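Hi P.,

Sorry for the delay on this. The queue was packed all week, but I finally got your sequence through. Input first:
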Amino acid sequence: MKMVWILAVSFLFFSHASCTNPGLKVRVTQKALEYGRQVGIQALQQKLRQIQIPDISGKTHVPVVGHVHYEISGMRISAFNLPGSAVGFYAGTGIKLSIDNAYIHITGHWRVKYLFISDSGSFDLSVSGLSISEVIAMTRDDTGRPAVHSAGCTANVGGLDITFHGGASWLYNLFSSSLENPIRSSLIREICPKVSDAINGLERHLKTMKISSHVDKYAEIDYSLVNPIAITNTFMDLDFKGEFYNAAQHKEPPFSPPPVSLSKQADHMMYLGLSDFFANSAGFAYYGAGALHLNITDDMLPKHSPIRLNTSSFGNLIPQVEKLFPNMLMLMNLHAKQQPIMKATPNNITIEVWGAIDTFAILPNSSLAPLFVLDICASVSMKMAISQMKLAGSLKLSSLHLSLGHSDIGSFKVDMLQGLLKIAVEIVVLPMVNARLANGFPLPSVDHLSFVSPLLKVNQDVLVIATDIKYGP
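Then the structure:
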């Protein structure tokens, strides 16, 4: 017995240890299932109305009349109502759909023959008390997408009521009970395959999910599932990789995603938890791709700016600049020295940036003369927003610190440039960065699904998006 416990504990430990922390965790709540039921029940109803009931023929004995040969043909479902349905999570497996007290109305034609007499007409068949129970398994397919399949279906038919019209229909109503079993069997046999067809339609829809999103020429995002889908009785969690890659070379960053924790709130249909890893993998990818650099020239400054990017303006602060290179334009090359680091704390997102500014004088022949190199450490705050299934943002400068890395024009006090560079960052650099961030980065999506009234909240190490969803074909 002791060995059994050791093996059990070891299994649980290694099962937990084998899970990969995601960059993005998505939680689907019961509220989302209820919305899905409302949308999906209409599609299921359409599928069930397509049930084909085969013709029935046979022979039965009617008192007084004797043996009667009958044929039932052309049966067509004219109404299939599903007034009562419920859906819920099925722990460890997926979703369970239950339908009770469904009603079917069927029309068709009858023909009978006894002795030397033939007769025919039409009939109405009412099926009541129909129940369907379906378990939909949620899994991860080979491509890393969510997948669904039928894990079990049962159907039961309650009462059948047949009314014949035309001919001597009053007589044929006497043997209508002989038709109930074959019609009941046909319905039960056909219902579950139609339910499976509807599930296959959902599966085809899930295959439209983009698990790799091209962002720009520098980066792309991987949204494949990294763990099996976790399903409890109250919610379903999907763990997506949520990682940026250099578009030219997939290289893992020297850091790993932390665990993503979501509260047990269920006011919204869906909760998305984006960890710091998501943004920091973007910084790693863009830095590795050489994208974090910018040349700043005088024509990029507002025309009304009292400070110009030329040696005359800088000569007021650093006299030797104007003395060595009189009346010349200047160029600043701003570039990152390492990847930026984002940190999420309650109600706050901060990004630390380390870089350098290589400063040049532009000579009359358009060549560059090096002046000095400033090392820069900046802190910016970030605000996030959701726009058209994309995560957008904007930055605001919080602090800026300069130090002299190298000088080709002699020593000078860097403090004098602090205000000048702060203005340059605020009126040139940040507007350009914010314009790019405003375009947004795509979140994982399925065709025809969109967010409704998303709310953003910054918690420790994670940005949480609480949203409802809408399906619009």
